[in-house]
Amino acid sequence: MAGGYAAGLALKIMIYALFALSLQLLVGGAGLVSLGHAAFFGIGAYTAALLTPDGGPALLWWLLPAALGAAGLYALLTGALALRTRGIYFIMVTLAFSQMAYYVFHDTRIGGGSDGIYLYFRPEAAMAGGLLFDLGDDTVFYLFALACLALGWLFLGLLRRSPFGAALAGIRISEQRMRAAGYDTYPYKLTAYVAAGMLAGLAGFLYALKDGFVTPELLAWEQSGMALLMVILGGLRRPGGAVLGAVGLVLLQELFQSEAVFGDFATHWHLSLGLSIIALVALLPDGLIALPDRLRGMAARRGGDAGAAPVTPDGAPPGGGAAGAAAPAASSAPAGATAASTGTAVRGPAGAPVRDRAAALITSGGPHG
């Protein structure tokens, strides 16, 4: 494929964006912070490498489902136990399960041990004896990865707007209230956990095909931390934030590792990256996806200051009443009122309608109304 370095960088960004999207379903969707997500990423990659024969390409129709199925099965087995815990205990249990998988591949000969394993052929899609497309072609593989990312984003977008997504948002806001409303939250969380694991397995599958080499480091906790960092950097509440976080983090890594830009200091790229992330999180606590809203707000405030009406010494607008009376009227609703209980629509940042549906679920009589 033309444009070697740029195309390879774009492919890397797409794969990590899909990986971050899978974690966003847990963190931003259900409020489940996991440090073990790399296990599913690595299992998807190892499945692709181990099931590809040395003598020729495998069929995509069974290799891809095998990778997703292996990652989903491990997510089901580990999630069934991990989701019995909460908070910091959930984080530690997911980390433990991920490290268990890491050491299985690192300390045994299943996948070549610490040396890793090579994948010599990308799969091909054939049907009725005819070749539909071959992922061994770099252009075809690039488009396939782009299609996987687009489908992953579409899937999360539809899920977020579905009743299931509203229930997950309700769990994120207040699992206790969802339980009180009659919802059994465990199946919702487990379903989200397995779906996120399968999406991460898809990203790992693509990673194995991209590099043709898989090592146990793909399952290490650093990979989980990097995915979590992408979600936080981009913005927790919207899938687009995970994609922006992946773009930002990968580009920052490439920039700070460049000897052409930083010379010998490029060997200390971790320091530069860490300082940049601290600055970005401090300046944009809602993530990169909130940057346009922040800029519009700053512009509106500057415009408002330029045309501000004069005020009286006590800080009230001249003529008193109408503007001052609005605040008590707005605050006269009951303290616990929500969109569901007052009948009014709450308008805020993107994603507020989902929060409103979650609030409606919490304040309703349960899943059956």
TrEMBL record:
InterPro entries: ABC_transp_permease, LivM-like. Residues 303-314, 333-346 have a biased composition (Low complexity). It is found in: Cell membrane. GO terms for cellular component: plasma membrane. The chain crosses the membrane at residues 59-81, 88-105, 140-159, 186-206, 269-291. It is a multi-pass membrane protein. The keyword Glycoprotein does not apply. The lineage of its organism: Bacteria, Pseudomonadati, Pseudomonadota, Betaproteobacteria, Burkholderiales. Signal peptide: none annotated. Keywords: Cell membrane, Membrane, Transmembrane, Transmembrane helix. This is Branched-chain amino acid ABC transporter permease. Its main location: membrane. GO terms for molecular function: branched-chain amino acid transmembrane transporter activity. Pfam families: BPD_transp_2. It comes from Bordetella genomosp. 13. Residues 303-328, 333-352 are annotated as: Disordered. PANTHER family: ABC TRANSPORTER ATP-BINDING PROTEIN (PTHR30482:SF17), HIGH-AFFINITY BRANCHED-CHAIN AMINO ACID TRANSPORT SYSTEM PERMEASE (PTHR30482).
